Amino acid sequence: MGKQALGRFISTMLVFLGLTFIAFYFHLANGAFDMSVADVIKTILHIDANEHHQLVIFEFRLPRIIIAAIVGIGLGIAGTVIQGITRNGLADPGILGINAGASASIVLFMFFFQFAYSNMSENNWTSILMMPLFGFVGGCLAALIIFLFAMRRGVLDMQRLILTGIAISSGFSAVTLYLSLKMNEKDYEMAAVWISGSIYHANWTFIIAILPWIILLGSIIIRKSYLLNYFQLEETSVRSLGISVNKERAILLLCSIGIVSACVSVSGGVGFIGLIAPHIARRLVGIDHRFIVPASAIIGMFLLIVSDFFAKTLFEPSELPVGIVISIVGIPYFLYLLAKAKA
After folding, report:
1. Which of 59, 74, 228, 321 could form a disulfide with 84 if both were Cys (CB 3.0 to 4.6 A apart)?
2. What's the rounded Cα separation, in Å, for the pair 243 and 27?
3. Helix or strand (DSSP H, E) at 25
4. DSSP string spanning 146-180?
5. Beta bridge partners of 152
6. Is the per-residue pLDDT at 266 higher than 70?
7. Distance between CA 318 and CA 312 in Å, rounded?
8. Cα 75 to chain centroid, rounded
9. What share of the chain is helix, strand, coil (3-state, %, to 5)?
10. What share of the chain in percent tops pLDDT 70?
C-alpha cells in the first residue's frame, strides 16, 4: 500500500464519516416533530428525557437511520464486488436483476404467508428472519440465469450481461407485480411501498435480522477484496498466479447476493447505491479494491441516510419512498456512465 494512496483512503473515510454524522443528526432531529440539539442529547443519554421524545427517537427515527446505514453499507460493498467480478463499471445488483430476483422471492413469501407479514409491525420474528433467506434464493436464481445467458464460449460477455440483466429484471418485476396484485388490500399497500424502496417501517427486529448477514458476509468480502485487483487481469494471468478463479468468484458473488438479499428484505427495491458508491470511491481512493470496498461502504451509508432524510422531509407530512429519491440521482448518473462508456 503506497503512502499516498493510504493517505487518500484515510482522508476519504474521515470526511464521509463526518458528513454521515452530520446527516445522522439532521435525520434524527428533524421531521414532522422537530427537536433541538439539547432535546436529542438528553433523550439519548436518558437525562430528564421527555416521553414523546423517547418515543420518536427510539421507536421511529433511530431504527430507521440505522437500517439506512446498514443497507447503504451492504449495497455499497455488493456493488463493488459485482463491478469487480464482471469488470464492468455499469454493473450493480439492481441493473443485473439480483434485486428484482430477491424482491420477487420475498413477495412470493409475503403472498403465501400474508398473515405473518401483516403482523410484522408486532415484531413477528419468524417472518422477519425468513425474508432474507427467501431473498437469497431468489437472488441466486436471478444471478444463475443471468450468468448462464451471458456466457459465450465459456467467457462472460459484458454486453450480454447488461442486456440479460435488464431482461431478467423486467421478468422478475412482472412476477412481483402480479403477486402483489393478488394480495389482500392491507398487504398490497405495504408491499407496493416496499417494492418502491422504503424503510419507513424499520424497527429493531429488522436490524437484528439483517446485521449478522452484513457483518459475516461483509467481513469475508473485505478479507478477500485483494482478489478483485487480480480479477481485472486476463483470466489466464490470474490462473497462472495459482488463484482458483471460479471458486473465489463464486464465494464473492454468493456473499454479495446474500448481502443484497438481506438489504432487500428490509428496504425493498433500493437501486443505484451499488452503482454510484463504487464509482465515487474509485475516483477518491484509486483502483486498489482493498481501499475501494470499505470506502464504498461508507459512501453508500452516507448516500442512503441523506436520501432517506430528503424522502422524509421534502413533502411533509407525506413521505416519498427512498428508492424514488435515489433513482432521481441514479438514473441520470447511469446514463452519464453509459454515454461515457460509448465515447
Report:
1. 228
2. 45
3. helix 3-29
4. HHHHHEETTEE-HHHHHHHHHHHHHHHHHHHHHHH
5. 155
6. yes
7. 8
8. 3
9. 80, 0, 20
10. 93
Of 249, 243, 250, 251, the residue nearest 220 (C-alpha): 251
As a whole number of angstroms, the distance between CA 244 and CA 242 comes to 6
**72 or 34: which leads in pLDDT:** 72
Beta-ladder partners of 156: 151
Q: Pick from 20, 75, 4: which is nearest to 270 by CA?
A: 75
Return d(Cα 85, Cα 213) in angstroms, integer.
20
| Residue 322 grid cell | 427512498
Q: DSSP letters along 175-211, please?
A: HHHHHHHTS-HHHHHHHHHHHHH--TT--HHHHHHHH
As a three-state string, the secondary structure of 58-71 is HHHHHHHHHHHHHH
Tell me how long the chain is: 343
CA dist., res. 73 & res. 259, Å (int): 10
**pLDDT: is 155 or 269 the higher one?**
269
Could you tell me the three cell numbers for 23? 446527516
| Separation of alpha carbons 227 and 221, rounded Å | 10
Q: What is the pLDDT of residues 31-48, one digit of tens each?
A: 777 888 888 888 888 887
Q: How far apart are CA 276 and CA 273, in angstroms?
A: 5
- Beta carbons within 10 angstroms of residue 262's beta carbon: 29
Q: Per-residue b/e over 74-104, b at no fewer than 16 CB within 10 Å?
A: bbbbbbbbbbbbbebbbbbbbbbbbbbbbbb
